[in-house]
Amino acid sequence: MKKSAVIFGLLLLTGCTVIPRPDSSTAIYNFTVPTPLTEQRQQSQQQRVKNGKKILIPQVTAPLWLDNPAIHYRLAYHNAAQSYTYASSRWSSPPAFLLTQQIKQKIAADTHHLVIKDSSVAIVEYELHIEIEEFSQIFDTLTDSHVAIRFRASLVNNAHRLIAQKIFSTTHAAATADAAGAVSGFTVASNQLVDELIEWLDNAVNHF
Known about the structure:
Elements: H1 2-13, E1 16-17, E2 27-29, H2 39-48, E3 54-56, E4 70-75, E5 79-91, H3 95-110, E6 114-116, E7 126-139, E8 145-157, E9 162-173, H4 179-207
Parallel strand pairs: 2-5, 3-6, 3-7, 4-7
Antiparallel strand pairs: 1-5, 4-5, 7-8, 8-9
C-alpha cells in the first residue's frame, strides 16, 4: 500500500493522469516535421526508383487505446502492462493520423512514387496499409525512459492480393523524463521507421 501511495504521489507531481484533461495550459505536439533530403539521399533516390508507382495510402489504423490524441507512457519498473497519459500534454491529432501524414509526405518527397488520395480519380497500382501496434514512452526507472514504436505494413496490389508484409519496430531514448522528451524521441524514431518503410516499399514494388 505504501509503495502504491508513493507512486501515485509521484504521478501527481509530474502532471500525469490516466485521463487527459486538456486546458488552456495544455502543450500540443506534432512530430510530422519533414526532414530535408541530403545530396547523398537525393542521388540514392534517383538510383533507387526509376519508374514511380501509383500508391494509395489509407488512414493508418490503431487499437482503441491509441485512438486519441493522448501521449501514452508506461512504468516498466512498476507495472509495464498499465498505460497512463500525460494530463497537460497531447498530440495535435491521434498518432495514427500523424503517422499517415508523415508517411505520405516522405513518400512524395523522397521517391518518384505518386501518392493517390482517392482511387476514384486514378488507377491505383498498390495499396499500403499500416497498423500501429505500439506507440508509448516507457519508463525503465523514475528518470530514464525511451519511446517504442511498432507497426505492421502490408502491401496489396490492384488485384487485392497481399504481396508483402513486414513489422517495423524501434526504440529511442527520451532526452528528458517528461512529455517533451517523449515527443523528441518519437520524432527521431518515427522518421527512422518511415525511412525503413520507404526502402522496403521500393524493393517490394520493384520486385513484383
